[in-house]
Amino acid sequence: MSIESRCRKATLSLLAVLSWFIPAIGQTQLSQYRPGVTAEGAVYYLPRTVVRISVLVEKTVFTPGDFAPYARRYLRVTDAGEEIQKSFRVVGISQTAMPQADTAKVYAVKFDARTAASHITLSDDGRLLGINVDDAADVQAPEAFIAAEQPVPTNPRNFLGEDILSCGSTAKMAELIAHEIYDLRENRSLLIKGQADFMPHDGLQMKLMLDELQRQDDGLTSLFLGTTRRDTTEHVLWVDVNAPVERQVLFRLSQVHGLVEADDLSGAPYYISIEDITQLPAPEPETKKKGNKAAVHGIYVNVPGRLRCTLYEGINILQAEEHPAPQFGQVMLLSANLFNKRYSTRLWVDALTGAMLRLDADQPH
Fold first, then answer.
1. How far apart are the first and last CA of the chain?
2. Sign of the CA dihedral with 173 first, then 179, 182, and 184 last
3. Across all residues in the chain, what is the average pLDDT?
4. Nearest one of 345, 344, 350 to 364, comparing CA atoms
5. CA distance 335 to 329
6. How confident is the model at residue 341 (pLDDT cuts 50, 70, 90)?
7. Per residue in 182-202, is it b (16+ CB within 10 Å) or e — as a string?
8. In sequence order, which ranges of the chain are alpha helices (DSSP H)?
9. Edge-to-edge strands, sheet with 118-123
10. Which of 272, 12, 53, 242 is nearest to 141 (CA)?
11. Tens digits of per-residue pLDDT, 15-60?
């Protein structure tokens, strides 16, 4: 897994067009260069797919009321909790394919001053985005989850009168609060029936009065029945797809600590499976050519395969989605003849897959 980072586009103005290209295979000297402009030209990567998994975990905390032991006696409630309780559950999960520079697919571009000027556009991590284009764009990561703003909790003690607060006995205080609750409910019932001493003038005033009575009722009742607070947080996991896997533990969910690492046995496991579902013809075998000129002249792009990512909670499937996977596909060579001064060539490359999106090669008049 890797750490999420925002990509930005870096446009490199080249003094020469792409004259010849060297593949990563057999070119160990390329490993010493960073992607971008070098002394002899430029170096770029093709992408591979990593899967970004967003897990929304809801934390629920129950806090017992101060008068929970008296709930049965005064409110006839038999199941009022008297201990703090905490629990976690997954309330949402999503997956997104994101690109990552594939260091096994690094290519060099050597400049030739005899050719026309050109522009190569790279992502922040050195992936090829386009040639001779100004609108090449990188993939943007999904926006981070923002939890809904929690309402300010009501302090129920603000509804207690002097006679209740001055009680020296907890049991007596609980009794008086219970009477206050029943009075609130009776007044609310009278308002609804139209039998209250002071009836509202219109529907809006009626609603305001009913809402206030309910607010006070809920606040005082919480002194017996307790309160429950729920908070949702997002956890982002990055899955580096190197090969197919079958039901590998992705993370665990603990009722004490929430989402924990895959090797923490305190939590229940959630699994991931990665399947290679690529359906591409086998690549043609390379043919050897006489002389020193190898058939490597041109620009390399991906022909991506596909993967299926399945997430499980125990034996139950939570989600299964398909994504492009360049690492399960092939590499295609675009002829260098397209990139010489006889043509006005523009190439758009898919930022996610490294595949050719569009190629315009116009011969100037």
1. 52
2. negative
3. 82
4. 344
5. 20
6. low
7. eebeebbeebeeeeeeeeeee
8. 71-75, 162-165, 170-193, 203-225
9. 9-14, 118-123, 128-131, 344-349, 356-362
10. 53
11. 333 333 444 333 434 555 566 655 556 788 999 999 999 999 999 9
| Tokens 């490294």 -> residue | 354
Tally: H helices and E strands in the chain: 4, 15
Q: What percent of the chain has pLDDT over 90?
A: 55
List residues bridging with 104 in a β-sheet: none
In sign, the C-alpha dihedral spanning 287, 293, 297, 300 is positive
HSE-CB for 300 with a 13 A CA cutoff? 24
Report the distance separating Cα 27 and Cα 40, nearest Å.
15
Instruction: Tell me how far apart the alpha carbons of residues 342 and 98 are, in angstroms, rounded to a whole number.
Output: 36
Burial of residue 329, with CB atoms counted within 10 A of its CB: 0-12 exposed, 13-18 middle, 19 or more buried: buried
Q: pLDDT tens digits for 72-94?
A: 999 999 989 899 999 999 999 99
Round to whole Å and give the CA distance between 256 and 249: 19
State pLDDT tens for residues 209-268: 999 999 999 999 999 999 999 999 999 999 999 999 999 999 999 998 999 999 999 999
pTM, whole model, 2 decimals?
0.80
| pLDDT grade for 127, boundaries at 50, 70 and 90 | very high
Which residues, listed in sequence order, are joined to residue 52 by a DSSP beta bridge? Answer: 96, 238
247 contact partners, CB below 8 Å, separation of at least 6:
271, 272, 273, 312
CA dist 126 and 31 (Å) reads 13
Instruction: Report the C-alpha gap between 299 and 247 in whole angstroms.
Output: 38
Which two tokens mark 282? 């086998």
